[in-house]
Design goal:
Elements: H1 5-10, H2 21-37, H3 42-59, H4 64-71, H5 75-87, H6 91-113, H7 117-126, H8 131-161, H9 167-172, H10 174-198, H11 215-237
Helix pairs in contact: 2-6, 2-11, 3-6, 3-11, 4-6, 5-6, 7-8, 8-10
């Protein structure tokens, strides 16, 4: 199985990785909510939250370059909104849209990069998220790996049987390749589902080692609340 980057990050070892998923979800939600409701002193707000998120990434031992590159993927989507604000003469609002979007994406990436998906979904379920939504997310995540694995197997088999064809022939055979890929992936997914049912799956994933909130989780939440409170107090006094 070829894991994606975030999945690889989530299996590292750090103080942040060892925290309960519920504590990290609540902390991330608090940061995101705080970013949304704050509407003043952007020159102080954005660097302050940047320092907080950077500190979390360093504690989680996440690679800074990879984190920044993936957080920057949201910028093309918010660029049009920022451009409209800039066109209307509100450069401050444009900068806040870009900055808040980038910081929000970084917060979510730190959460995903320090929490395995099964623990994240179980934490969301414990916090009251709809079970159907979590089940769809779990299966989507699993079967994206199935699709990727089948594509890699087909590519490897093709390389073993023939040299790389001309670009024109690649474009012409793309539809057939995609059809075969989805057919094989569908068959593999069916076999996986049957194997899950044979092992007792009844619509709910069960963790073999259930976790409980401990002292370090409450210390982490208190530290996050103190940091957010300090930022808002600083902004209030400006």
């Amino acid at each position: 199985m070829h894991h994606v980057t975030l999945d690889t990050w989530s299996r590292l070892s750090s103080p942040l990785h060892r925290l309960d998923a519920r504590a990290k979800i609540v902390a991330a939600a608090a940061i995101l909510l705080s970013l949304v409701v704050t509407e003043r002193s952007y020159a102080v707000l954005l660097p302050a939250y940047g320092v907080l998120i950077t500190a979390a990434a360093l504690v989680g031992r996440l690679p800074p370059a990879g984190l920044l590159a993936r957080a920057a993927l949201v910028l093309p989507f918010v660029g049009s909104v920022a451009a409209l604000n800039l066109w209307g003469g509100d450069a401050t609002r444009a900068a806040s849209v870009v900055g808040k979007s980038f910081l929000s994406a970084s917060t979510v990436l730190v959460l995903l990069g320090t929490t395995p998906l099964h623990a994240l979904l179980r934490g969301l379920e414990s916090l009251g998220a709809p079970r159907f939504f979590l089940m769809v997310a779990q299966f989507l995540y699993r079967y994206l790996f199935v699709l990727s694995e089948q594509a890699q197997h087909m590519l490897q088999a093709r390389r073993c049987r023939a040299p790389l064809p001309h670009r024109g022939s690649l474009a012409g055979s793309a539809a057939g390749v995609v059809a075969v890929l989805f057919a094989r992936s569908y068959g593999r997914a069916e076999r996986i589902h049957q194997a899950m049912l044979a092992r007792g799956f009844r619509g709910h994933f069960v963790l073999l080692a259930p976790t409980a909130l401990g002292r370090r989780d409450f210390v982490f939440l208190a530290a996050t609340a103190a940091a957010l409170g300090s930022i808002h107090l600083l902004l209030w006094n400006l």
